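Workshop exercise sheet. Pairs work together: one partner reads the sequence aloud, the other fills in the structure field after running the prediction. Swap roles for the next sheet.
Pair: D.N. / O.F.
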Amino acid sequence: MKSIAFPLFLAAALLLVPELKAQSMTQPIDGIVAVVDESVILRSELDTAVGNVMAQNAARADQLPPRSVLERQVLEQMIVMRVQVDRATEMGIRINDAQLEQAIASVAQGNSMNPAQLRQRVEADGLSWEEFRSSMREELLVQQLHQRMMRSRVAVSESEVDMALSTLGDEPSVLYRLANILVALPEGATPEQIELAQTKVNGVKALLDRGELDFASAAIRYSDAGNALQGGDLEWRSLDEIPTVFASMVREMAPGDISEPVRGPSGFQLIQLTDRRSQDGQMVTEYRARGIVVRKSELVTSAQAQRRVEELRSRIEAGEDFATLAREHSDDTTNRAQGGDMGWFQLNDWGSGVAAQIQQLSDGQLSQPFETEFGWHLIKREDSRQTDVSDANRRNQMREMIGRRKSEEELERFVRQLRSEAYVDIRLES
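Structure field:
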């Protein structure tokens, strides 16, 4: 059975969080492999993380880099994780127990388990539950650090959205599944460093062209990017989420194609297009309805509220106007003045209780009284229509895509700055 103790929440981060010390509990601590500011990373912690990487890539074990190279890759990601946790703590970011439990429940659900089953699996894989929770808490800390940083540094204007949409014109929205290999360059790289990096990336491209390695294996072995241990996977992106230097190139690629080396802000990159798909127009059913709500309270019991709604329904059935009765008797202040008019809405916009009733009704039909957590309700479905929400969705998606692209660029700079400012003493043997 495949272990899922580590890559459940955000795979790369949980895989490499140094506090996952299951093996260190049964193995002697054999020394310090790195000092990061005022904390240390132990050999046992590194061995645990490297073991997880090797287990995840067991099917391509022969294409992993040598153990010494893999250790340095994993250790670097552990260092980056540690400095981010430290910065989050310094900024006063805290994760309370409710947030942690919600995250654990999401992890369990994503693996088709409940939290108790997740705990059993974690402990079966040799990790104590408290250490798993600690690792989850630190991952959430880093997430909140990133969110706080992006809120202060990243903004998307409506003019940016307009401009991005205008460049697309009427062509269908296309998503691209990408992977990358980065041969990094330091800030202010010397000509010798640039030449060495270019020689390395050309060598990697030659290996790929000859079929000696697949792209994912080459990324694990040679890439300096943070997603190297995930085979360089960049997931699905639109053109507006792809840096401009690569966007026009990706547009012309076919699935499986690998780009020539391209110099970018971080170094030389190879890009592979693994797949592409179009996003078609999205049709949804919208409903128009009127509603009356009689709320329950300390003064109005559920039975009393039910009787009032039943009386109102009888009066409507006898010919009285729904809108007039809603203005006079509904407790819903959001639409009482409009005669209970709920406007046009999608099925679940007013909650699951209303949705269940709306689906059962035909246009012009009056519901039976029904109860939700807000009180007793009466709904009259007045109309329905099919609406193409593609334009609104497209604009929202574009705003999110531009924001994600900016966030990734800022996040890369932010993490690189944290790493450069930290005191790091690596004590791995050469």
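Discussion prompt: The chain is about 45% helix and 20% strand. What would you look at next?
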